[in-house]
Amino acid sequence: MRYPLDRCCHHAVISLVFLLTVSLTSLASPVDAERQWIRLAMTQEPPNLNSMRSTDLVSYFLLGHINEGLLRYDRRGRLIPGVAESWQVEADRITFKLRADARWSDGTAVTAHDFVFTWRKVNDPVEAAPFAAIMYPIRNAEAVQRGELPLSELGVYAIDDRTLVMELERPCGYCLSLMPHGTFFPVKASFYEEQGARYGSEATHLLANGPFVLSEWVHESRLTLKKNPNYWNSEAIQLNEIEIAYITSDNRTRLNLFRDGQIAFARLGSETVKDAVDQGMRLRTFLSGGIAYVWFNMREGRATTNLALRRAVQAAFDANEYVNQVVAIPGYKPTTTLFPSWLKGTDGRFVDEYPPPDFEQGTRQVNALMAQAQLELGEIPPLTILTVSSPTGAKVAEYFQGMLKQSLGIEALVDQQSFKQYLNKSRQGDFDLGLSSWYPDFDDLVTYADLLGSYNANNRGRFVNREYDEWLEVLQRSVDPKERFGAAAEMQRIIVEQVPVLPTAETGSAYLVHPKLKGMIRRVIGQDPDFTYARVVGSE
DSSP 3-state assignment of 449? Predict the structure, then answer.
């Protein structure tokens, strides 16, 4: 689902600004058991909080606390009832029965009509919702998105206020797993139409149906979440307030804020892991389930359309060196596939049962491929590496810049952008190589394989391969595990052979958490971290 990359420019100025900020902030603990209150920091300003248009983890972290879909995840990552209290799965449809006490934060009922309105909006070709393709399992969704059928033909309708029917284009073994994804969250039609283009841009332009409401949003400064008294399961929510008092992508600033008792949770980067350990802090690690990779831009006029050039980059890249010496964050693992090791296969893990094919690496192979690329392209112009302005993003971009120069003899320019501008540039194809990550939207191979589908708006490199699309269709349509895993293995082969992306690592997270903060959940799927059932205890 998404593009989270953990800025090192003007480091002294940033540190001074935060030092001054801290001096003006209460020196109280970042947790309060009596108030059930915690203070946090976020790495980025959320680009938008319109669940129908969001694609990034920063927005989903907030939306996952503010909103709720038909199903949600429990503490162990299992699917449990959300807005829907029950459901019936048939070969051609899923019927959801909504709970009577599901409410919006304005006190009105969440109805099946809200879901129909939202899902039609996502599928409307005029809207061009970035995640629209995730709804392809719904009957006629693909044809509706292409403008071949009217919205009224989308296979979703309300029998009454509490009964929602989702008709299926084909049998779908993973469709229930889609329901907690933000694109399937409901939006209240009357409120959305009242807000218009402002929807999701301010705290007052949002309506919640989840455990918390966004009560304050001071852009680029702070946000506040408060317990939603109208949430159907509010009695299970113990935190009354989550104050996000800092927005900074600077890892060292977050470490200092945690050390100084200003925040209750801190993600660490490679440059701060050692400092935290040296200071005696209790370091925790988490395999976060994502895949880090490099996009190659396949748009006309880009040197990266050349297969020999892409293969030369692949042959020069050392995943072990990258993970251990460049990223250097506990929990990261080297990889050569887009499918992470946590995904299940027939009896064990998919990557063990269907290992990615080997490919030749080393100086001789790089030189041969570069000779071919230069013969086909002529002089290769400097390439642009797009990344997020952050310590990790800058370090990774500099590594690839050096690798291109030393191993391939290619000049490269690093384009560091704010998170929001990074997303804009990647969508517009304003790059040659783009540094990115993809995190799972649901528990199935499709969540990764679909990324390279030719129809997918999140296919930032615009890779188009008919064979890949055909195997992807098998993966999406089949309910036979053997057939599905075989299709995924073929797509894995095509990725290695055609190199539309260069997988670099399975992502991990090193972090610190306040000892009095309990019940925080780290998730592979869904909002991460999840504070829905967190609480503050009175003693350690």
Answer: helix
